[in-house]
Amino acid sequence: MEVEVEDGKVDAAIKTLKKKLNRAGVFRKIKEKRYYEPPSAKKQRKRKEILRRAKKKLKKQLKRY
């Protein structure tokens, strides 16, 4: 991943890089890989994530009407 530094604006470049890395899911992957997660716990976590996203989507759809 690359970010161009313009006119010595390092802080802005770091902010842009962090935003790009966050959107790519790099921080989430690092957090997940920090410790070993058994396959059963991984399946359970993924199921919870799917349910959370479904609830969020449903809530968003209901809010429109």
Automatic annotation (TrEMBL):
The gene is rpsU. GO terms for cellular component: ribonucleoprotein complex; ribosome. This is Small ribosomal subunit protein bS21. InterPro entries: Ribosomal_bS21, Ribosomal_bS21_sf. One of its GO terms (biological process) is translation. Gene3D superfamilies: Ribosomal protein S8. The lineage of its organism: Bacteria, Candidatus Blackallbacteria. Signal peptide: none annotated. GO terms for molecular function: structural constituent of ribosome. The keyword Ribonucleoprotein applies. Keywords: Ribonucleoprotein, Ribosomal protein. PANTHER family: MITOCHONDRIAL 28S RIBOSOMAL PROTEIN S21, SMALL RIBOSOMAL SUBUNIT PROTEIN BS21M. Belongs to the bacterial ribosomal protein bS21 family.
